[in-house]
Amino acid sequence: MKKLILLGLVLVTGVFANAQTDVSLKINHKLGFEDFTLGAVGTNNLGYDFKASRLQYYLSQVTIIHDGGTETAVPLEVLALVEPQEEISTTIELGSFDVTTIESVRFYIGVQEPENNADPSLWPEDHPLAPKSPEMQWGWAAGYRFIAYEGTSGAGFGSYFGLHGLGNENYFEVATDVEVEAVGEALVMNVMGDYSQGLNDLILNTDIISHGATGAAQQALINWRDDVFGLFYSELPEETKVLNWSIYPNPSMENVTINFANETEVDHVTITNVLGEIVQTIVVSANQQQLDITIEETGIYFINAMSGDDEMLATEKLVIE
Fold it and tell me: Are 271 and 258 in contact (CB under 8 A)?
């Protein structure tokens, strides 16, 4: 399975100047290019299939990068126990900030010191750091499980993996671009989390039980730092035909023209965002050589030329500013 991380920055501009804007971080939970669910079959980078039976992790110490590189730290008390096993996405309300254009985000996986080594019973019952069942706190000295990832793998899924990564030395920072959407007067930073990448470089044909700050548990935390989060899209098959077409202007403010020249195989065009969601489908009439489209929301999109059999003939990245 091949993925490309988008390097382009997605900008949201305009209407929030000189005002405090509510900002949230939305993690979209994925297993490859499908939504993450417990029991679904995933595959790591070594080709081993697995099924997850538990997945929880802590996310903390968020920093918003905005308006040409300005960094704004979110208050440290904003901390979340992310549980992909219970929802297809997790939205973390970060607070109100003086931002207009958001470029990227940084955050840590785990719990910062000294909270990591504090007494969990001192927190209110509904707090992310309060005692949980199943337990997320390993002990006062060791601290919380930063990640708890469990499931089955190997032949007939007869092997077990249990990875509980922890340790202040493994409190790793993640940096990623974001897809920003305006929801009313608030800004939502979308990031994808692909948890098949969380098992990268682990040989899953035998039991793996790793609780601690080293070994397979540490490798899982490294994977969370380096591989799990980003903006992803599928690469075209190698045999995809190169069409004689053009899309202009690109970048565009809103209105775009597609010129198919003498192409006759295109049946319809789909427009997808960086999360792989189809936002428009336009039918192409027989012998139609030009198509005018309008996309009102700023962001990065993909214009996909499709055959009548829903085969992707070509794709092109489009930036709406």
Answer: no
Count CA atoms closer than 13 A to 303's CA, side-chain side.
26
The answer on 140 and 16 residing in a single domain is: yes
98 pLDDT tier (thresholds 50, 70, 90): very high
Question: What are the DSSP calls for 137-204, one per residue?
Answer: EEETTTEE-SEEEEEEESGGG-EEEEEEE--GGG-EEEEEE-EEEEETTEEEEEEEEETTGGGTT---
Same domain, 276 and 205: no
Give me the number of domains the chain comprises.
2
Q: Quote the CA–CA distance of 78 and 61 in Å, as a whole number.
A: 7
Q: Please tell me the distance from the alpha carbon of residue 129 to that of residue 132, in angstroms, as a whole number.
A: 8
Cβ atoms within 10 Å of 31's Cβ, excluding its own: 24
Q: Are 187 and 93 in contact (CB under 8 A)?
A: no
Domain match, 114 and 263 both: no
Tell me: do 229 and 244 sit in the same domain: no
What is the per-residue DSSP string for 210-264? EEESSHHHHHHHHHIIIIIEE-EEEPPPTT----S-EEESSSBSSEEEEE-TT--
- The C-alpha atoms of residue 143 and residue 137 are separated, in whole angstroms, by 6
pLDDT in tens, 190-231: 999 999 999 999 999 999 999 999 999 999 999 999 999 998
Cβ distance 50 to 38 under 8 Å? Answer: no
DSSP state letter for 265: -
pLDDT > 90 fraction of the chain, expressed in percent and rounded: 64
pTM (two decimals): 0.73
Domain closes at, from 233, 254, 278: 233
Domain range spanning residue 287? 237-320
Phi, psi angles (nearest 5°) of residue 105: -145, 150
